[in-house]
Amino acid sequence: MMNSLLNYGSLLIVALSFACQSTPTNEASRPAVADTTGILNESSEAFNERMGWWRDARFGMFIHWGPYAVPAGVHQGEEVEGIGEWIMDKASVPIAEYEAYARQFNPTQYDADAWVKLAHNAGMKYLVVTSKHHDGFALWDSEVSQYDVMDFSPFRRDVLAELKAACEKYGVKFCIYYSIMDWHHPQAQAPNYPKYNTRDTARINPEFDQYVQNYLKPQLTELVEQYDPHVLWFDGEWIPDWTHEHGVAMYQYLRELSPTLIINNRIDIGRQGMSGFDAEGDFVGDFGTPEQEIPDTGMAGVDWEACMTMNDTWGYKQSDDNWKSSQELLHKLIDIASKGGNFLLNVGPTAEGLIPEPSVERLQTLGEWLAVNGEAIYGSSASPYEAPDWGRYTQKGGKLYAHVLDWPEGNQLTLPEALTVQRAYWLADGQEVVADPAANALTLSATHQDQPAPVLVIETALAVAQ
Question: What is the pTM of this model?
Answer without folding.
Answer: 0.91
